[in-house]
Amino acid sequence: MGFYGFLLLGAGLQVAGVSGVHGEAYPDTTGADTVASIQGEVVASASRVTASRAAEASVYDGSLRELVVPQPRLEEPSIRLDGRLDEEAWEAGAVLSGFTQYDPTEGIAATQETRVRVLVTSEAILFGIQAFDGDPDGVRATLAQRDGFGRSDDYVRVLLDTFNDNRRAYVFQVNPLGVQGDGVWVEGSRREIDWNPDFLWESAGRVGPRGYSVEMKIPLNSLRFPDAPVQDWGLQVMRRIQRNGFEASWAPLTGERASTLAQSGRLQGLEGLEPGRLLDVNPVVTARRQGGLDSETGRFSRSSPTGDVGMNLTYGLTSNLTLDATYNPDFSQVEADAGQITVNERFALYFPEKRPFFLEGTDIFSMPRNLVYTRSIANPVGAAKVSGKVGGVSVAHIGALDRSGSATGDPVVNLLRVKGDVGGSSTVGMVYTDRTASGESFNRVLGSDARIVLARRYTLDVMAAASADGRPEEDTRWGSLFLASLSRASRSLSLRASFEDVSRGFRARSGFIRRVGTTQVDGRVGYTWRGEAGALVERWGPSLSLEGYWERPAFWDGKAPRETELSLSFSASFRGNVGGYLSLSRDSYTFPAADYEGLFLDSPEPTPFRPQAQLFQGLWSLRLRSWISRWEGARISLGASLSETPIFHRAGGGVPADVAERLSGDVDLTLYFTSSFTGEMGLRHVTLLRKRDGSRYSSATIPRLEARYQFSRALFVRGIGEYSSQRRGGILDPVSGTPVLSCDEDCRSSDGSSSHDLRLEGLVGYEPSPGTVVYLGYSRQMDSPTAFGLGEVRTRADGLFLKMSYRFRL
Known about the structure:
single chain, Immunoglobulin-like, nine-stranded mixed sheet, 46 strands
């Protein structure tokens, strides 16, 4: 049949509403009236079946701490995933009940009943979920994109800690219609859940008059687990009711402990788990036609269509080690980065990784600081990755050849990470990175880190690293980094203190370190009061933080800090998913005269520019943010701030040159027109007015619109429009208003810059499962000579692309 035959067959089966190539069965209910069309069908019949079998099933009540579940084994279940839970095979499943709320009120019985059936077969683990609801009209359910419903829909989340190590767990999340969300829970990471990895599994859900029901089937070959004849897995099930923000779990949770996974239940005595030797082959075919503006002639022209072939491969070396490889990868379906305001930024901006190959196994590379930043591999020709866990040691290695276009040649990148378990929840790790460009330059970093959990409540993070950067036959530049932080987990009194020291010579070219040559000390204390169950104010409280930055030599010489910030914040959350916070801070900056070397006033006799130090003392700022998580058909977030801020002379190394009053605001609004159609509107604006005379130094305005229509779980169309207008003026002396010159070989003024860009993107996508896709997309880059001069826009570049890939699991 061939590659395209398989692709078309899969598309036909999915559109017909039956099991496709991957065996997925979806409810045949799509479009604007999805929820309404399935009301009244399912939950009543499911509850009748439950009543008749309750005496036969083994029930494990989480509220009674019945958290150890012996293997609920069934060899050959005949279960068709349709969200009904009416097959007799479910009678053999263990039943998880007795959910308790952990947010906003901890320890009380859940407001709505949840019952989860668990089955383990020779090929998969299955979950049958009955989420009862006394207000079925209040159930939030949309045909959202994968991983995209966490802030809009009700959901049930299953955590599987397959190594039972309390450090990492698979996350499988479903909304009432069976739409999938998946990722990896990483204890101690900044985001807690990494939603980027996608796994192959099946799900189906239905809404009825008493709530909703969902069936899930997770193949064992989609999981990594120990190579052991008998093993235990950590198990947790959570449920969120979106209309009120109530969250409950099967195994009771408390915020008084540092580790969430350590509070999970357990699937005990799992035997005969044989995933088989996993082999995924994922060929990719792309075609594109690109256009651009010729810088010499000013004419716009398009090139002839071109095509390309790439290949992705995943091979299960063992049940716990995986090899991933890619050749000529294509990331054309990846959404472009949202525009960021850059008119007064001192440091490089961080952009999250979005490319599929680099997302798998990224949890192993999580560290207190980003010594591994895979976006530093800009355009790989090919790459390979090994990741997994052997005993109590997690390992990961990425090797890549980057097509950088640099004059020093294409760099070869190697990233190695090893992390070992210590005790119940602690870890120690090592990282090594090497970026070598054809023998012309090199950068190497060696580091170690530890996360130590003390008395179940306190977490100590420590990290030390050294770097070597240079070229052959030249002196190597050495650098060091050290940090330590201590935090206290609590639902009421929270504490955190940290220390970080980075030498000026530290370079991590495969990582992302925002500042070097500094020493930072900061501390934070906060207290939270919580209302009774059902109270109007669910939680509220203040927090106080203090930060100080020193030039590294000045810190060790006992001198005053270069920058300080004292901040007092107040936050509150109200019934119905409404919240906000208010922050008042006071900043000070002290820069020695030597940092202003090379800056002069533009006068007949150029004189050195040395602003008065007191200009940058006691600058204040006031920030306000509020949000409504989901209110009927909308979700909204608002923010505003008014502050005094330095104007930084970027050519002078980021030194403050003037003071401005900064006015900023942003709004993000998501509208749920139907269960299939959503629209997002965002607007960000920042204006800096010179404090001396109120004249404008800079302004930036970025409106963004996105619309998405989900025809089915697999088929969607998306459109994005974003306009970015940013202007920056020249640096002026804060007293006289004289222009400031930057002089090295010659003297030049920073007379400002401006950009007014418009970006349009359109994408039609068909993605029945991760790796099997058809994308047809178009993008256009335009600009205009004046702000919002939409009648004067000219096209700078455009591109039309088609991508097709199929994931063969052998």
